[in-house]
UniProtKB/TrEMBL annotation:
Organism: Astyanax mexicanus (Blind cave fish)
E.C. designation(s): 3.4.21.-
Species classification: Eukaryota, Metazoa, Chordata, Craniata, Vertebrata
One GO cellular component term noted in the UniProt record for this chain: peroxisome
Identification of the protein by name: Peroxisomal leader peptide-processing protease
Main location: other
Function as written in the Swiss-Prot or TrEMBL entry: Peroxisomal protease that mediates both the removal of the leader peptide from proteins containing a PTS2 target sequence and processes several PTS1-containing proteins. Catalyzes the processing of PTS1-proteins involved in the peroxisomal beta-oxidation of fatty acids.
Subcellular location(s) of the protein: Peroxisome
Record Pfam families: Trypsin_2
UniProt keyword annotations, A-Z: Hydrolase, Peroxisome, Protease, Serine protease
GO BP annotations, alphabetical order: protein processing; regulation of fatty acid beta-oxidation
Family named by the database record: Belongs to the peptidase S1B family.
Record note on modification: The full-lengh TYSND1 is the active the proteolytic processing of PTS1- and PTS2-proteins and in self-cleavage, and intermolecular self-cleavage of TYSND1 down-regulates its protease activity.
One function term, GO molecular function aspect: serine-type endopeptidase activity
Length: 520
């Protein structure tokens, strides 16, 4: 079964309401077992039909059909049926009636979610399966998933069961493929089985129960699958729970995913007689290609690039370890402090070191840079600095954005979208990687070699529209900093960095958007 063939659309409506039938709630789903018609999808679309909504807060881990209104009607639209017809989506032949077998709560995901997403940080999660896609959902339902059985199945020539793999095999930076149907039941002939490529940005919880990916998902894809390639065969590794995340009204640009094998574990604990459900557990893969993880990304010269968390008190951000005692970060991260804390991710734990700010640029400087010295050496690292910049090449941003303080550094993928020059020298880099608050001072890395291209300075915020664009961001090329770093290494005199404060007018013009009264 291909990735696209495994995708489906689940619609839920109330038979007593004509309006509900015309505009059903909908989400994406994954066909786990084609011949028996077993489907797994998000539980959020079923929440309005719960008879006792308070039961969800009573430490229950499973709900059966009797917990939902008798008037609830469920149908499933299949990719192979919709692809072979031009009839509008409301035509009954495009949908197969389905029965809700149960809803299960992935407790491991729930625990990881509650630990990471602190209410005080104003996280919001959006979902939606119709034309009005911006629907704020109750986060309590994010860990719930519905198990369905389709009826009236056509003759199938597909494999019985979808192959899958444990999320515990994942590492940050692993390539993934997301498949879902944006806007759910709205125009399925146009949007069904839409694919999006990305990487694993971060992991959290028991056996990596919670997965963050930068694959670009849209409302309606919740319940869709996240896949990794094991050889030539894509393997299901998770289900999308929330395609869009906001923090303090800023778009994060990451999708939230729950581990499939932990959902399956909960299902199997609840059933003993449904053989097709139990058969799914035998179609797993135990091996997956390992990639670089944690805060270190291997470089082509055999050394490692390490990104640290720089904490100045009220503000925090990222920094790049240039040698055992020197950290490069942004001026606005150190926040005018002379001393601060530097935290390094070691075996998924943060080791705290003390740092002293040797130099930071003036507020009037176009370059937002600070140099920090560690009181104690950490590791013998010498990152390889890039000497060329090629627009369109694959890059990765490594930094402590979004969930940095709780999950360690995140990785987001994209391309080097622009190299802006002044007097034929690169002075600004733009990438399409998702960059959030906390990533400032992080590293822009060439994907295929690990070379350091630049230091993240900012993303884009439209103050007039009150919108943040994480996929349009600005970085300082390392070619600007390399001669100054060499001079400091030779003389030990921090005055060499003062050249950043006396940048030419052409450079100031390039970086003008960071200076008020610019609206960006």
């Amino acid at each position: 079964m291909s990735v696209e063939q495994s995708c489906c659309i689940v619609s839920v409506s109330e038979s007593s309401s004509r309006q509900e039938q015309q505009n059903p709630l909908s989400c994406s789903g994954v066909i786990l077992n084609d011949k028996s018609g077993i489907v797994l999808c998000s539980g959020t679309v079923f929440s309005p039909f719960l008879i006792d909504k308070e039961c969800i807060n009573q430490n229950v881990s499973i709900l059966y059909a009797s917990s939902f209104k008798n008037s609830m009607r469920v149908s499933v639209g299949r990719a192979d049926v919709i692809a072979n017809t031009t009839v509008k989506n409301e035509h009954p032949r495009l949908h197969q009636t389905a029965e809700l077998l149960m809803m299960v709560n992935c407790v491991e995901f729930q625990k990881a979610f509650q630990k990471i997403f602190i209410e005080a940080e104003k996280w919001n999660f959006y979902s939606g399966g119709d034309e009005d896609a911006d629907i704020l959902i109750d986060s309590v339902f994010l860990s719930w998933f519905a198990v369905l059985k389709m009826s009236g199945l056509p003759t199938s020539t597909l494999d019985d069961t979808i192959p899958w793999i444990k999320s515990s095999s994942l590492r940050k930076g692993h390539s993934v493929l997301a498949c879902g149907s944006p806007f759910g039941s709205f125009c399925p002939d146009l949007f069904m089985s839409t694919l999006s490529k990305g990487i694993v940005s971060n992991l959290a919880g028991e056996e990596n129960a919670l997965i963050l990916t930068d694959a670009r998902c849209l409302p309606g894809t919740e319940g869709g699958g996240l896949f990794v390639s094991d050889g030539d065969t894509p393997h299901l590794v998770g289900l999308i729970t929330s395609p869009l995340c906001w923090k303090s009204n800023e778009w994060i640009g990451l999708a939230l995913v729950c581990s499939f094998h932990l959902i399956l574990k909960r299902i199997l604990q609840a059933v003993t007689s449904h053989q097709s459900l139990r058969d799914i557990s035998t179609h797993s893969s135990t091996h997956i290609h390992q990639v670089s993880s944690s805060s270190s990304l291997k470089l082509c010269n055999g050394n490692f690039l390490t990104v640290v968390l720089v904490d100045s008190g009220q503000l925090w951000g990222s920094g790049i370890l240039l040698n055992p005692r020197l950290v490069l970060t942004c001026r606005h991260v150190v926040d005018g402090k002379a001393f601060l804390l530097v935290r390094v991710n070691v075996n998924e734990r943060l080791l705290t070191l003390k740092g002293r700010v040797l130099f930071s640029t003036k507020a009037s400087s176009p370059y937002d840079i600070a140099v920090v010295e560690l009181q104690e050496p950490f590791a013998d690292v010498v990152p390889q600095l890039a000497t060329r910049f090629q627009p369109g090449e694959d890059v990765v941003v490594l930094g402590y954005g979004a969930l940095g303080k709780t999950c360690g550094p995140s990785m987001t993928s994209g391309i080097l979208s622009r190299v802006i020059t002044a007097k034929s020298r690169p002075v600004m880099l733009q990438t399409t990687c998702a960059v959030q608050c906390g990533a400032s001072g992080g590293a822009v890395i060439r994907a295929n070699t690990g070379e350091l291209l630049g230091i993240v300075s900012s993303n884009t915020r439209d103050f007039a529209a009150k919108v943040t664009y994480p996929h349009l961001n600005f970085s300082i090329p390392v070619s600007v900093l390399e001669p100054l770093l060499d001079g400091f290494a030779e003389t030990g005199n921090v005055a060499v960095f003062q050249a950043l404060d006396s940048a030419e007018d052409e450079v100031r013009k390039v970086w003008r958007l960071q200076i008020p009264p610019s609206k960006l």
